[in-house]
Amino acid sequence: MGSNAPVGVFDSGIGGLSVLHEIRRALPGESLLYVADSGHVPYGEKSPEYIRERCVLITEHLLAQGAKALVLACNTATAAAGAELRERYPNLPIVGMEPAVKPAAAATRSGVVGVLATTGTLKSAKFAALLDRFASDVRVITQPCPGLVERIEAGDLDGEGTRALLQGYVAPLLDEGCDTLILGCTHYPFIKPLLLTLVPESVSLIDTGAAVAKQLQRILNSHCLLAEGASRPAEFWSSGDPEQMRQVLPRLWGETAAVRVL
Prior knowledge:
The chain is α/β, with parallel strands linked by helices. It has helices at residues 17-26, 48-64, 75-88, 101-107, 119-123, 125-134, 148-153, 160-175, 192-196, 209-222, 242-252, and strands at 7-11, 32-36, 69-72, 94-95, 112-117, 139-144, 180-183, 204-206, 235-238, 259-261.
């Protein structure tokens, strides 16, 4: 696999575009492939077996496009399928995601950390292990957010319905004294501007997109796979409505692009 081959990135939908932004910022020379599994969103309400099946199918697609490395830009997919993908593709560099429990535990002043995430992420053994490892000295309050991913998928980042839904999820965390909020889903950074209007300035918002980009840089470097020269334009696929994704790309990715059917 040549160093100028592309990096494959996928998510249950368009949320992973927040990670794709960070990868482009950190590694502007890398060519990127992105799959939104929007026909099967949200992963957070699906069984681990179903998610693993989807992840293998998408990985095979990205490998067929010549991907040199894989980024699971989805906390739920990483928890459900990360280990199986690494076992199935032992020679493929794979970077996954996990909620930022460690930096949040270090950042909190009140000792109370809130987690906004999907049901699947919060129920996973991987998340439980994170809490055991890094959050023994803080109080962590988890908040599943059903319906939020679907609103972001539709491009509704700041409408009254989205505001009301988010307010209902955030208010109980603030009432418990939370001063640090983990955005435990890659969709959620896109509603950060809305979230900032709902929490005091003293509340810190933490996500892991930049850390994932840095880990990708490290792993590509260790495999001598960092790209040399100019990157190609990003390529996009969707298992849902490609026209819907094409319409939200300018807002969420910053430019227009063709979207092909997965």
